[in-house]
Every structure is written in structure tokens, then in C-alpha cells.
Amino acid sequence: MNCPHQNFRELEKDIHTDFKDDMSYGDYLQLQQVLTAQKPLSDQHDEMLFIVIHQASELWLKLAGHELSAAIQNMQDGDFGHAFKVISRVKQIFNQLTQSWNILSTLTPVDYLKFRDALGHSSGFQSYGYRKLEFLLGNKNQDLLKVHESNEAVHSELKSILEAPSLYDVTISILAKHGLAVDENQLNRDFSQPYRGSRDFPL
Known about the structure:
Layout (H helix, E strand, L loop, with lengths): L24 H4 L2 H4 L12 H31 L2 H25 L4 H8 L11 H10 L14 H12 L3 H11 L6 H4 L16
């Protein structure tokens, strides 16, 4: 029996500890790859913070893109209940992303400039995950594809999303089918182009 004042807890007998032939938590989450993906290019202490914050943000952006893609498909299929559920989830993801910048705010501009030159031309503007969200939500700009031409797979996926109806396009299409007066030019248009509101149906 443990002493009540001792900071020790015995390992329960039914806890599995042999993972030679079984999948572990780390195996499932690919933690070896995830936790070794931080490769600072300088000897500055704060660069690790910068990398981790942005890698974590990209994972949240990936999840948001996954959920918005599902929401669009759900709405096209008439499954509005699940669409509302995942859109609500995206809202919480955005809240999480906003909160994460509080941590990054502890990096002063002076500290950032100590390693910024090592990053070359890399910039958050080149974020594939962020661009995907822009296109899914309807903020279309074909010129932005140029930033991703060096990665064929990414460029191809973004081009497909650019040319497909956005969440907004799908929404007004459904509203039109249920009787809302929507300009036909807004429904049958080149979805790769920026949305332009009309007098009767503004942005």
C-alpha cells in the first residue's frame, strides 16, 4: 500500500505495456514523424516556438478544410444537420487558431528578426491550407495558384477547388431551389472567378 503522503502511483496491472507487435498511441498518431519535423535553420532559441506554432496552425487548417469540404458535400446531398455540425466545428477551430497567436505574441519583433533571414522567401502567404480555406469559402483568385506551381499535387487540388462551387455558391443555389429570388447569373457562372454581388442579391 502506498503511503498517503508519497507522490507515487503504481501501474495498474491491466495496463498494456508490450507494443512489440501491437500498435501504440505513438504509432497511431505517427508521433515519431510529427515530433521530429521541427528543423530550425538557426541557433536562435525562439525559432522552435515559431516552427511549432505554424505547424500546429497548419494542422488546424487541414482539419478546417476537411470539415468544410464535408459541409459542402453534405449540403449538396441535403444532409443539413451534419453540415451545420461540422460548420460549428470549423468555428471552434478558428477560435483555437486565434488563441494560438497569443503564444506567438511572446516572440518580439527583435527576436524574430534574429532568424528571419534564414527563412529565405518562405512566408505564411504560401500556406496551402489557408489558400484551400479561401477557395472553399468563396474567396477565389486564380492568380494565387502561381504560388503553388512548384508542387504539382497541391496545385492540382487547389485548381479543382478553385473551379468548384464554394460553400457560399452551394448555399445560394439551395436557397434558390427553395424559392429565394437569386439572379440566374449568380447561379450559373464561372466558379473560379471572384463572386460579384448584384443589386438584388449583394455580397
